[in-house]
Amino acid sequence: MDFDIGIIPLPVYILMIILMISFTAINGITKELAMVIAIAATFAFTLGEIGNRLPLLRNIGGGAVLVTFVPSLLGYLGWIPQPMTDSVGEFFKTSKILNLFIAAVIVGSILSMDRSLLIKGFLKIFAPLAAGTVCAGIVGTGVGVLMGIDLHQTFFYIVVPIMAGGVGEGAIPLTIGYSQILGHDQGEMLAKVMPAIMVGNLTAVILAGLLANLGNRLPHLSGNGVLQPGAEDLLGKQPKAEKGCDIRAVAAAAIVAVMLYLVGVLMHDLMKWPAPVVMLFLAVLLMLCHLISPRIQAGSAVVYKFALTAMAFPILFTFSLVLTPWESLIAGFAPANLITIVATVLAMVTGGFFTARFVNLYPVEAAIVTSTHSGMGGAGDIAILTASNRMRLMPFAQIATRIGGGITVAIALILMHLMY
C-alpha cells in the first residue's frame, strides 16, 4: 500500500483497472463524478509513470509529455472505450474543471508568496517575455520563408497563432478577426491555425523538460523554481501556521480561490476581460494590501500543493482526450511547418534565456516562463510547467500566456487590417 503509481497505492491501482474492465464489459460506465475521477486518474497516472521511467524521455518531463498528447492518439485509435471518452468529456466541458484547477494553482501560489518577491517578479518577467516574443517573430518568419512558405502564411498562420495564448482566448478571437478582415469562413481559418498551436505547445513542453535538465547539470543557471537570485523559495517564507495548518484553514483558502475565480467570470461577462487575468491581479492586490492573514496563507499553500499533486495529470489527460484532435496535431508535422514551428518556439525560449541576466532572473526559470507564451492556454501552461517541475511559476506563466497572447492577437489584427 506504500508503493504508488502516481498517487494511487499499487493494490488500489490494480483493483481500479479490474473495475474499469468490469464496468466496460457490462456497459456500466456512467457520467457520475466518482467514475470520471477513476477513469482520468487511472489513465493519467499510468501514462505519467511510464513517461517518468522511460530512458531519455524522463529527462525532458516525459510524464507530462505522454499525458499531454498520448490520450489524443488513444482516443483516435479507439483504444479508450467510447463510453469512457463520453463520460470524461461531458464532465470536463460542463464543469469547467480546468478553470477551477488554474484558480487553485494561481491563487494558492500567489497568496503563499512573499510580497516583495511577488512584485519584483511581476515587474521583471516582462523583459525576457518581450525579448523572446520579438526573437520568435523575426526568426520564425525568416525560417518559414526560407522553407518555401509564403511570408503572409508564415507570419499570420504559423508564428502568430503559436503566441496567441491558446485556443479559447487566442485562436478563436484571432480567426474571427481574420475572417472579418478577409471575408473568409472562420471555421476554415481555425482549422488552418490549430496545427501550429498544438505542435508549438508540444515543442514548448519538450524544451521546458530540456531546460529543467540543463538546470540540474548547471545549477548556477537555475533556481529550481525560484525566479530570481536571493529568494529562498518563490512560494515565499511560509507562515509558521502551516506546520499546524488545520482543515478549516485549507477549506477557507479554497473558498477564497473560488470567490476570486467567480469575480473573474463576472468581469468577463460584464466587460469581456479575461477571467484568469482578473483573478490573478485580484490575488496580487490582496497580497499587496495585506488582506490575507497567515492562516489563509498557510491554507493556500496546501491548496496549491494538493492541486499540483492530485489534479495536474488527470486534467492534462482529460484535455488531451477531449479537446486535442489527433488529425490536427499530425497536420503540423509537415516538414516545412514543423521546422518553422520549432524554430519559432526555440527562438522565443532563447531570447528569454539570454535576457534574464539583464534583469537579475535565473535564465532557466525565465526561459520556461517565456516558453509558456507558446502554450495552449491554461492547459498548455500546466503541461509546460509540469514537464519542467516548475508549477509554482504558474502566476508568471499566466502573464505570458494571457497578456502576451492578447497583445499578440491585437498587433496581428492591426497589421492584417493595414495590409488589406
What does this structure look like?
With 420 residues, the protein is an all-alpha fold. The protein has one domain (4-419). It is 75% helix and 1% strand. It is built from 18 helices and two strands. It has helices at residues 10-25, 33-53, 62-77, 82-95, 97-111, 115-124, 126-146, 151-162, 167-182, 186-217, 247-271, 275-288, 294-323, 326-331, 335-355, 363-371, 377-387, 394-419; strands at 4-5, 8-9. The chain has a two-stranded antiparallel ribbon. The chain is globular, with a radius of gyration of 21 Å.
Structural class: mainly alpha
Order of helices and strands: EEHHHHHHHHHHHHHHHHHH
Total tally of structural domains = 1
Task: Name the strands of the widest sheet in spatial order.
Answer: 1-2
| Unreliable parts | 232-236, 238-242
Task: Compute the number of helices.
Answer: 18
Q: Give the biggest sheet.
A: 2 strands, antiparallel
Net shape: globular
Taking the alpha carbons of the first and last residues, their distance comes to 65 Å
Please estimate the helix content.
over 70%
What's the β-strand tally? 2
Q: Measured on Cα atoms, how large is the radius of gyration?
A: 21 Å
> What share of the residues does DSSP label as strand, in percent?
under 5%
GO cellular component, one term: plasma membrane
Protein name: Malate permease
Transmembrane segments: 6-26, 33-50, 56-77, 97-113, 125-148, 155-181, 193-214, 247-267, 273-291, 303-323, 329-354, 399-419
InterPro entries: 2-OHcarboxylate_transport
